[in-house]
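Page header: ASSEMBLY MODEL / two components / 444 residues total.
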Amino acid sequence: MPYYRPMSPELKTDRTRVRRQPARGHYGAKEVYAILDEALICHVGFVQDGQPFVIPTIHARLDDTLYVHGSAGSRLIQVAASGAPLCVTATLLDGLVLARSVFNHSMNYRSAVVIGRGRAVADPDEKLRALRAVSEHVVPGRWNDARQPSAKELEATGLAALRIAEASAKVRSGPPEDDEEDLALKVWAGVLPLHLEPGEAVSDPGLAPAIELPSYLKAWRR
Amino acid sequence: MPYYRPMSPELKTDRTRVRRQPARGHYGAKEVYAILDEALICHVGFVQDGQPFVIPTIHARLDDTLYVHGSAGSRLIQVAASGAPLCVTATLLDGLVLARSVFNHSMNYRSAVVIGRGRAVADPDEKLRALRAVSEHVVPGRWNDARQPSAKELEATGLAALRIAEASAKVRSGPPEDDEEDLALKVWAGVLPLHLEPGEAVSDPGLAPAIELPSYLKAWRR
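Prediction written out in full:
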């Protein structure tokens, strides 16, 4: 019972083909984009001296370009911008799946894996567009409210870009799938849904009391 | 304002030294373990033909061993068990940090990065212990309630082990850090806390009505 219906297999290659549970694999841009757009963070994989590193960071998507954000001097951005092979993975956890047997336990999730080679984002106009996309990706409405970056701040911001040309989505949803012979066991089975929930906003200790919580933050949901 | 006080630098090497915002880096086993133990999923990085891959999966820790779970035939487990270099990263997102300037926006998070070489878990006793740890890691109390794995199921379960000897934790917490000259701006600043919340449990459609939700699930929190 896939969460999405598969679309065109445009992002499928032998490197992004889902091998385990192939019915859970999807390769349409729509499915991959939806996961990248909902996830607040991604995990970027890169290789240095044969050793893989996986670093969490913030991203945003504009059309078929995935932007990865960091400090200009960070290893992540330097490697990502160098043209080295990358893997960017975003995962949304939707629930714990409790089967009658330990073996059939699972999780409901949606994950997107994008591979390719990154490039530096050096042009100030593209940098500003990408930074705005990152800001609006995390908190829609914030960009026009906060003080926008100065030229010096733009320079200190690191951004790498990756074209979303080779990717896959993997999705599990729905109830547990127990073996026929386990169905009569007197064990509770089902799904415990999980959701990332915002708590009550905590004002900065130095905030002037007259400044109220903006409506886009009151309405923030994921 | 680090979330934890740094302990002994026992897991620090040049490869795991936090380069950006070094004050956020911690290298004690206690800090690294706490993040691994709270995270429901991790992202495993491995290299194939020079290309990094980052795959989400479930893990558990027993003392200084990190177990990564999957299907026995999966690429992830096959590579992880082969002795190839791995990176296992677990990230907990604690909040959105909204500064008065776009540039100083951030997130509150705790992440742990473990690198090393994996090994296969072949011994059935260790496999059972590790599987129990994975089950109890996700839902404490579930192992003794559900049907435990058969010999055949144990064989189909893939587990790789990684000794936690080279690792780091990176933690950001607390309010935004605005530049002095931005403090008078009329922009709301502060933190929007985020938390993974369980929703109402959804019983399996085939569940006998007499079977009630177990207390360990009613009490489930992260």
